[in-house]
């Protein structure tokens, strides 16, 4: 049987990849990777970059390029067979990773290169890879006795499987709930675009009427516009209890035990390595130095934001009572009355704004902005192998015509696709004797799809999400680092990895940029000045509430890892309540099970690291403030950011790269100014 995962093609052959290809390919590539390490160590030295590190990197790159499309397809076109194939390999990959990290001969070989005369001759990126590797050997338990190494390996495999199980529970719970509406009056208040989407969803199921579900565009439309309060309550309850012991599918895909096991195993893993807790372990690869630094940073921001958040909520309650005679504002009312209030005070309708942001205008406009900033040309490639008809494929050329990267764009929500938005690497930049391997990225969102002949219309929040993920993509694709371990986002401290993404969001608020990304989907008219002024006036509407909500997530994540006590268990909702008492202003109902769907920390890479969004937002706001001084399309400033940040990948510490661009360390003032919160 020909196996497309074993054919070292330039791009994945998605249409040919079947579940039965996965395990044989990964098994074979793991055998080859292990054999390469054994062969290279057999000589006994002296070891060098070229006779040890480079050949191992080449083999692991081959493994990554086979696993990447499998992992991606499991997220975006999930099926039982692909899920089984994916899960069958998780333990094998985890075992290999731990085995390499605990290989004392390999560690000694890396150390010998570090201590040799050759080390001084290596470039900065190569030195960083070796230093990172030596750190990671220790974080993998290379110093542990055999029994503890075995336990570490066991924990790592279990954590890998539990993260996948958590994500599967959430996907299944999200797909399980829907509500068939047969009377249009039940959907009163919904705009035409949302009604058309619900009708299209019903038609796809062969039903009359309208179908609403827990995919985010459907949920957001109900929460924001549905006049029917009982429907909002029902939808909110279904969404906020996914994969839990509460709600319409209580206990069916319950993540309670999974979360407890994850926290217990993370804590045990950290203690095996002599950290007090997993939060300390997490910071070993981040910019932040101590757990106290992180907590103080978050609590300082909370102190600066809390009064405004309370004022935001008080104003919303007063508005709901005065204008709509509602005196018991609940969690499922917040979005609805916030939208009413935005329209009342700013005459700003999110639905009106959407009409100026068709995807057919936003995407080429985004490319134009990047072209102006960095001198790049982005064009679509029409012929390519794909996993779904929605997907588009593009290439990026620099001003000399050199190919810098390519990316897949998969924008719309659908069944069997994981929720949220993300960038992931498909192929990483690497220079070898075979030539230059240019990077390829996946950019994935869950926007409302087009209905009928009309293009997809994006909310301004969705426009910002697209810019955010594209910022990650540029970080991956524009790298000029030729060594795999620190090219693109590889090797970047996790609390700095959001800098390029949040940085890109700023252009969504600049008039000069908006003229490039906006045009009414029917008339072609650019966003009117009057509407833009309303958007600006409302930009920081409820900024305090939004800030403390993000701080609630960040503090909760950090504290459940920092204060884990094996004798007491995870105390997940107890700690969440303590954090809410400290920073939150909106009270949520008893049945709310937010943590059961917080996949960033239980199934993603953000465990004891969700604070990174706020940490990096300080960097991104301060970086953008230089463009505010020089001009948002100032080419010299753009090229400085390109050369000092985007192209450098993880080849230097993030703080050094930031200072090279900004000329100083970051300060928080720009973030507070951008969010309208007084310092």
Automatic annotation (TrEMBL):
UniProt remark on cofactor binding: Binds 1 zinc ion.
Pfam families for this protein: Peptidase_M3 (PF01432), TOP_N (PF19310)
GO (cellular component) term, any one: cytosol
Transmembrane segments: none
EC id: 3.4.24.70
CDD domains to which the protein is assigned, alphabetical: M3A_DCP
Domain of life: Bacteria
GO BP term (any one): peptide metabolic process
Record-linked InterPro entries: M3A_DCP (IPR034005), MetalloPept_cat_dom_sf (IPR024079), Neurolysin/TOP_dom2 (IPR024077), Neurolysin/TOP_N (IPR024080), OpdA_N (IPR045666), Pept_M3A_M3B (IPR045090), Pept_M3A_M3B_dom (IPR001567)
Oligopeptidase A N-terminal domain segment(s): 27-148
Molecular function per GO: metal ion binding; metalloendopeptidase activity
Tagged with keyword Protease: yes
Record keywords: Hydrolase, Metal-binding, Metalloprotease, Protease, Zinc
Catalyzed chemical reaction(s): Hydrolysis of oligopeptides, with broad specificity. Gly or Ala commonly occur as P1 or P1' residues, but more distant residues are also important, as is shown by the fact that Z-Gly-Pro-Gly-|-Gly-Pro-Ala is cleaved, but not Z-(Gly)(5)
Domain Peptidase M3A/M3B catalytic: 222-676
Cofactor: Zn(2+)
Family membership noted in the UniProt record: Belongs to the peptidase M3 family.
Name this protein carries in UniProt: oligopeptidase A
Species whose genome carries this gene: Methylomonas lenta
């Amino acid at each position: 049987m020909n196996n497309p995962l074993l054919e070292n093609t330039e791009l994945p052959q998605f249409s040919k990849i079947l579940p039965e290809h996965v395990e044989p390919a990964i098994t074979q590539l793991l055998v080859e990777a292990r054999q390469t390490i054994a062969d290279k160590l057999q000589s006994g030295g002296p070891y060098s970059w070229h006779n040890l590190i480079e050949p191992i990197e080449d083999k692991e790159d081959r493994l990554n390029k086979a696993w990447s499309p499998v992992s991606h397809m499991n997220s975006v076109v999930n099926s039982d067979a692909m899920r089984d194939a994916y899960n069958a390999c998780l333990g094998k990959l985890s075992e290999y990773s731990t085995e390499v990290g605990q290989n004392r001969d390999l560690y000694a070989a890396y150390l010998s290169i570090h201590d040799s005369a050759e080390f001084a001759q290596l470039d900065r990126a190569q030195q960083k890879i070796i230093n990172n590797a030596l750190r990671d050997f220790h974080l993998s338990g290379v110093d542990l006795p055999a029994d503890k190494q075995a336990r570490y390996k066991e924990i790592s495999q279990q954590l890998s499987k539990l993260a996948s199980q958590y994500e599967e529970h959430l996907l299944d719970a999200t797909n399980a709930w829907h509500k068939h509406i047969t009377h249009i009056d039940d959907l009163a208040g919904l705009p035409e675009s949302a009604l058309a989407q619900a009708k299209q969803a019903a038609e796809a199921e062969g039903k009359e009427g309208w179908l609403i579900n827990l995919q985010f565009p459907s949920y957001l439309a109900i929460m924001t516009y549905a006049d029917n309060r009982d429907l909002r309550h029902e939808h909110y309850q279904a969404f906020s209890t996914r994969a839990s012991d509460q709600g319409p599918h209580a206990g069916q895909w319950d993540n309670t035990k999974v979360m407890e096991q994850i926290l217990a195993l993370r804590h045990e893993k950290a203690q095996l390595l002599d950290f007090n807790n997993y939060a300390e372990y997490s910071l070993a690869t981040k910019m932040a130095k101590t757990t106290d630094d992180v907590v103080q940073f978050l609590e300082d921001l909370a102190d600066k934001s809390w009064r405004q958040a309370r004022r935001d909520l008080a104003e919303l309650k007063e508005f709901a009572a005065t204008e709509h005679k509602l005196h018991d504002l609940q969690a499922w009312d917040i979005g609805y009355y916030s939208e009413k209030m935005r329209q009342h005070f700013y005459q700003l309708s999110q639905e009106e704004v959407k009409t100026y942001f068709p995807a057919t205008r936003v995407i080429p406009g985004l490319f134009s902005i990047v072209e102006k900033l960095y001198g790049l040309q982005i064009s679509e490639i029409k012929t390519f192998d794909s996993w779904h008809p929605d997907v588009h494929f593009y290439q990026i050329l620099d001003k000399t015509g050199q190919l810098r990267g390519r990316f897949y764009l998969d924008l719309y929500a659908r069944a069997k696709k994981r929720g949220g938005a993300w960038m992931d690497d498909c192929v990483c930049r690497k220079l070898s004797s075979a030539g230059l391997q240019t990077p390829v990225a996946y950019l994935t969102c869950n926007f409302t799809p087009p209905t009928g002949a009309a293009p997809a219309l994006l909310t301004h929040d969705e426009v910002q999400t697209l810019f955010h993920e594209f910022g990650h993509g540029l970080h991956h694709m524009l790298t000029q680092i030729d060594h795999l371990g620190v090219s693109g986002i590889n090797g970047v401290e996790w609390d700095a990895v959001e800098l390029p993404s949040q940085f890109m969001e700023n252009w969504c608020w600049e008039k000069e940029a908006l003229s490039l990304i906006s045009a009414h989907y029917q008339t072609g008219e650019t966003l009117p000045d009057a509407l833009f002024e309303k958007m600006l006036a409302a930009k920081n509407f409820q900024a305090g509430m939004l800030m403390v909500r993000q701080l609630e997530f960040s503090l909760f994540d950090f504290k459940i890892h920092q204060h884990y006590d094996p004798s007491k268990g995870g105390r997940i909702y107890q700690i969440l309540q303590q954090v809410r008492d400290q920073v939150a202003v909106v009270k949520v109902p008893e049945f709310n099970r937010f943590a059961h769907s917080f996949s960033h920390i239980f199934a993603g890479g953000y465990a004891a690291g969700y604070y990174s969004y706020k940490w990096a937002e300080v960097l991104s706001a301060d970086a953008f403030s230089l463009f505010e001084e020089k001009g948002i399309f100032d080419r010299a400033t753009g090229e400085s950011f390109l050369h000092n940040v985007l192209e450098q990948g993880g080849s230097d510490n993030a703080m050094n790269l930031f200072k090279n661009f900004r000329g100083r360390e970051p300060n928080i003032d720009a973030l507070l100014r951008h969010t309208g919160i007084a310092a």
